[in-house]
Amino acid sequence: MFHWLEKNPFFFAVAVFVVIAFAGLIEILPNFAQASRPVIGTKPYTTLELAGRHVYIKNSCNACHSQLIRPFKSETDRYGHYSLSGEYAYDRPFLWGSKRTGPDLHRVGNYRTTDWHENHMKDPAAVVPGSIMPAYTWMFKNTADIDTAYAEQLTVMKAFAVPYNKELPMADGSKVTVALADTVEGARASALEEAKVIAVDMKDQDVKDAVAAGQVPEIVALIAYLNSLK
Amino acid sequence: MENRPLEYDYTVAKWFMLSTIVLGIVGMLVGVILAWEMAFPAVNTIAGSGLAEYTNFSRLRPLHTDAVIFGFTLSGIFSTWYYIGQRVLKVSMAESKFLMFLGKLHFALYLLVVVAVVGSLLLGITTSKEYAEFEWPIDIAVVVVWVTWGMGIFGLIGIRREKSLYISIWYYIATFLGIAMLYLFNNMEIPTYFASGGIGAWYHSVSMYSGTNDALVQWWYGHNAVAFGFTVPIVAMIYYFLPKESGQAVYSYKLSLLAFWGLMFVYLWAGGHHLLFSTVPDWMQTMGSVFSVVLILPSWGSAINMLLTMKGEWQQVAASPLIKFMVLASTFYMFSTLEGPIQAIKSVNALAHFTDWIVGHVHDGTLGWVGFMIMAALFHMAPRVFKREIYSKSLMGTQFWIQTLGVVLYFTSMWIAGITQGMMWRAHDEFGNLAYSFIDTVAVLHPYFTIRAVGGTLYLVGMLLFAFNMYKTMTSSRRVEESELQNASPMGA
């Protein structure tokens, strides 16, 4: 049979394809049938948080930081409850990372604050002596791309029925609605409102001035995102 | 009397040889910069704080991985295809104007994609998925490049004189099909600009999969991009170049059959080992773990087949630096394909995952196996393509030892770093509290990061020697006759 295949490239290619496609069919499809469902308390990202997530991705934070707490005592002691599948239901793409040059960030919002992040992103070694993380000073100057974040929100709402503007149950029994504006102008305005809340806790005068002038620096969006990781 | 040999047309092979060398230097240089940045963070702002955005670790990291995978390695794969393909199918590209055009188009489009990738990654335009960072416009271009190559492969096979496909061709076909399938499925994404009616950046997209599903598809891709980029086509090369250079027949046809079909079947299952202890279903994790261990069989099948091909001719390893490169490459292949399955065992993975041990594993595979094999392939091709002898044998020997030392420094330091950090992360004191803060586990790595950076730098120095040797071979080496090109490549002192 093999000699015959080696003389018939078409059937050879078909045979190779069947053999390699087999594993994917069995391993991947079943999980898709049972699509990722959110756990109680998981909500979609707000416009500013999503813009911050884009800043996170733009600077490949995931190259050094994981967002996946494994079910070991040493990890739950250090980072909090181990990660659950449903908590990632609105993560497109997933940001688990594959290397922990720095600590895990999946629940960083539980134990770090806005001003901690501000100081740390400006000069990591000043906050954590011995840190090898580079400073991210340009995030204080660059403006976050709110429009693209809004476009992504609209897309996932339409294509994947992500529940914006819907009441969602929280773990404590309350209900929360993540609002999505009808227009891009509305999205910019609501992102700016969120940004003002963050900027109050920040010291950098340029950032405060920018927010007062209606701009959202990347650092503000990033901190909004990091604070949302709980 | 023999017939007059075919005049093979190596134009496209030559072009890809050049891009292999240039992109190899770029990718490895970026890697070396990254290594020094981890050892000495001040290197992050080496071009001044104004340019720090473009020189800091996290922005450069995808550029390093993509430049060595899709730049250096892929160019090497294409280059060897345009060389080996003609020779084992016994047909010249010059015989078909169409195939010649496709080959040239392939190279031109490939270069365009390279430029787009470098530019977009520096600007931070990325999907974040490892080895699939490109946004949708580049993804489409990649598909076009790939299909162009595929048409070239099957076109050449279509007009072949040698009816039986040689082993290397099996592996090239598998490379083409495997990457095509993986790349398409992993990059399913929706351009947000169009879906939202023209809002935001036109190049931005959002993944069709979310959370755990996204991770599953990504590592099915990520792991098997290694399979079909770093294993399958490199095996294609060694099955051709080692027997050619040594004048020995492949040790066992049956073993090559077993290794090929075994590899095809088993490799795809093993992707789950990247997701052990994550939120993907437990049975998939176990499958990933089990199949990773099974994977030793077909991997070692090829490697042993190659080593036994040298049976009775081991003096060639001492005599020829080119044989040295290939024998060490298959040795590193064995080593790396044993180390990988060990890391895929759940209890080992609990320690190794997220640490530098994984980085070390990747690099003994890529530097030792992929890098050495591609450079050996180019060394073997150069005299036949440029009709000149290899410029300097002693320089080749020097390069071999410098790079071998570099690889050894690299993986040993990363072993120690990874296992040290993994042990420190999990250490508890007698009261059950964590023994170390995270930064303690980083500070302890400094010496190993430094050794690694030295190792990487040595490898880059070797790469520069390689480039110099190739340049002199192309331009000013002694011209050779066809009769000198039977087996062992002609080399100058």
Average of pLDDT of chain A: 94
Annotated CATH topology of the largest domain in chain A: Cytochrome Bc1 Complex, Chain D, domain 2
The major beta sheet of chain B can be summarized as: 2 strands, antiparallel
Which protein chains are joined by the largest interface, and how many residues does each one contribute?
A-B, 86 and 92 residues
Estimate the strand proportion of chain A. Answer: under 5%
Number of helices of chain A: 10
* Strand order across the largest sheet of chain A: 1-2
Please mark out the parts of chain A with pLDDT under 50 across 5 or more consecutive residues, or reply none: none
> Main sheet of chain B: which strands, in order across?
1-2
Radius of gyration of CA atoms of chain A, rounded to a whole number: 22 Å
Q: What is the H/E order of chain B?
A: HHHHHHEHEHHHHHHHHHHH
Q: How many helix segments of chain B?
A: 18
Give the class-level CATH name of the largest domain in chain A. Answer: Mainly Alpha
* Overall number of domains of chain A: 2
Apparent shape of chain A:
globular
What helical percentage do the residues of chain B reach?
Answer: over 70%
Mean pLDDT of chain B: 95
List keywords for this structure.
heterodimer; A: 230 residues; mainly alpha; Cytochrome Bc1 Complex, Chain D, domain 2; 2 domains; two-stranded antiparallel sheet; 10 helices; 50% helix; globular; B: 493 residues; two-stranded antiparallel ribbon; 18 helices; 72% helix; 1% strand
